[in-house]
Write a structure and sequence with these properties.
The chain has helices at 2-40, 49-62, 64-67, 84-93, 115-128, 146-156, 158-161, 184-193, 208-223, 237-263, and strands at residues 168-169, 175-176. It is mostly helical. The chain has a two-stranded antiparallel sheet. Strand 1 and strand 2 form a beta hairpin. Helix 4 crosses helix 8 (184-193). The chain is elongated.
Length: 264
């Protein structure tokens, strides 16, 4: 009897361990979803039925060929389920979408749609499934703390975009674009949607106020040109070293040649 009781207890303890692990995973996922949804879930109640219907018509006419009528994606384009209004507003509002042709990365182009049409497209996509919403204007005024924003930018962004936001090359023909002249709303949307190779910085990574500080830093850098003369694109030691080799050493060699020709 004691042996049978021990076997039953061992079986129950094994099942209990599995149940405990499953419960822990579900709890962790639920907590993450709750925290993430505080900034990510779009409030579809802010969109009117007419706006969503207009967005649907625009989507069917201009986007469904690549992304599918059900937004699930095709071989020519990714799924838009869960991307939210912010992603649509960023991609279409910067002219990256619709893409002109297949390429490693969608470049900035002249915007095809009006702002009203872009908001309608964003409303339609957000109405299908929740995702990151278009940010509030209070985080886009560039009146935050530039010093804190600069520190956060150097830690999280400068390895790709350069410390001055001048952009940089990546692998596979891709690149981190320059951030000079980019609208604050698009900077914020890029942080919360992670376009191209960019990682996503949700509110658990960088708070909305910190995102505001980063925008403040970038706009400060944009408004205050480098005081040291030629910026050389603000691309850092590569362009500076190339300038020294070509013009510095080239100039010295030119003077040496001129002096020896005079002596002869």
């Amino acid at each position: 009897m004691s042996t049978l009781r021990k076997k039953k207890q061992a079986r129950r303890s094994g099942l209990a361990s599995v149940a405990l692990v499953v419960f822990g995973l579900l709890l962790t996922g639920g907590v993450y979803a709750v925290f993430n949804s505080t900034s990510a879930d779009a409030d579809t109640s802010t969109y009117s039925a007419a706006q969503i219907e207009e967005g649907k018509n625009l989507f069917v006419a201009n986007c469904a060929t690549c992304h599918g009528l059900d937004l699930a994606g095709t071989n020519a384009g990714p799924s838009l389920i869960g991307v939210g209004a912010a992603s649509v507003h960023f991609q279409v509002g910067t002219g990256r979408m619709p893409m002109a042709n297949s390429a490693p990365q969608a470049p900035v182009k002249p915007v095809v749609f009006t702002e009203e049409q872009i908001l309608s497209l964003a409303a339609y996509v957000a109405s299908i499934s929740p995702g990151p919403a278009i940010p509030s204007d209070k985080y886009l005024d560039a009146n935050g703390e530039a010093a804190n924003g600069g520190e956060l930018f150097r830690i999280n962004c400068a390895m790709c975009h350069n410390v001055a936001g001048a952009g940089g090359a990546l692998t596979g023909g891709k690149f981190a674009p320059a951030l000079d002249g980019v609208a604050p709303v698009h900077i914020y949307e890029a942080m919360i949607t992670g376009p191209q190779n960019m990682p996503v910085f949700n509110d658990m990574n960088i708070s909305p106020d910190d995102k505001r500080d980063i925008i403040t830093y970038l706009k400060y850098m944009e408004a205050n040109a480098g005081p040291g003369g030629f910026t050389l694109g603000s691309l850092g030691p590569v362009s500076e070293g190339l300038f020294v080799w070509i013009f510095g050493l080239g100039g010295i060699l030119g003077i040496v040649v001129w002096m020896t020709s005079r002596a002869n």
